[in-house]
Amino acid sequence: MGNYVGEYEQKKSVETEDKILGYLKLTGRTNIEDLSTKVGISSTQLIKILSIIRQKREFVFFIDGNEVYMPGYERERPKEVVKEIVKEVVKIPCKHCGYLSDPNAEKCPNCSAPIKA
Ligand SMILES: [Zn+2]
């Protein structure tokens, strides 16, 4: 009867392995802690199971710091949106001719009158 427990544990571990691989395939790259929380095991257990999976299955994944990733399944990370900062140029009208010129300019480009008082 001792075999029953062994079989049960084996079944359970295969289930856990499938769960882990499922998440890995889905995300491509995930944080070890996040993954262990999702599967419902500790991160130490997860790392242990990952090495077991690596030994008996053909799935290729790598552990990179606190992340685990599966090449080929990695989603393209969303590119950071670079906000274009448009500098608002405030122009001031020339007191002499009304021409809008840069406030840093010394002279009005239109009539050469001094901008700064
Ligand atoms: Zn002017």
Give the CATH topology of the largest domain: Arc Repressor Mutant, subunit A
- Are there runs of 5+ residues with pLDDT below 50, and where? none
Name given to the CATH homologous superfamily of the largest domain? Winged helix-like DNA-binding domain superfamily/Winged helix DNA-binding domain
What count of helical segments does DSSP give? 3
Instruction: Return the string of H and E elements.
Output: HEHHEEEE
Taking the sheet with the most strands, its summary is: 3 strands, antiparallel
Query: Which strand order do you get reading across the main beta sheet?
Result: 1-3-2
Q: Structural class of the secondary elements?
A: alpha+beta
Gyration radius (Cα, Å) is 32 Å
Distance between the termini: 100 Å
Strand content: 5-15%
What's the structural domain tally?
2
Give the overall silhouette.
rod-shaped
Detailed description of the structure:
- The structure is a single chain.
- The chain is 41% helix and 11% strand.
- The protein has 117 residues and is α+β, with helices and mostly antiparallel strands.
- It folds into two domains: 2-69, Orthogonal Bundle (Arc Repressor Mutant, subunit A); 86-117, no CATH class.
- It binds zinc ion.
- Zinc ion binds next to loops.
- Zinc ion (ZN) binds next to loops.
Helix/strand layout:
Blueprint: H1 2-27, E1 29-31, H2 32-39, H3 43-56, E2 62-64, E3 67-69, E4 92-93, E5 100-101
Antiparallel strand pairs: 1-3, 2-3, 4-5
Helix pairs in contact: 1-2, 1-3, 2-3
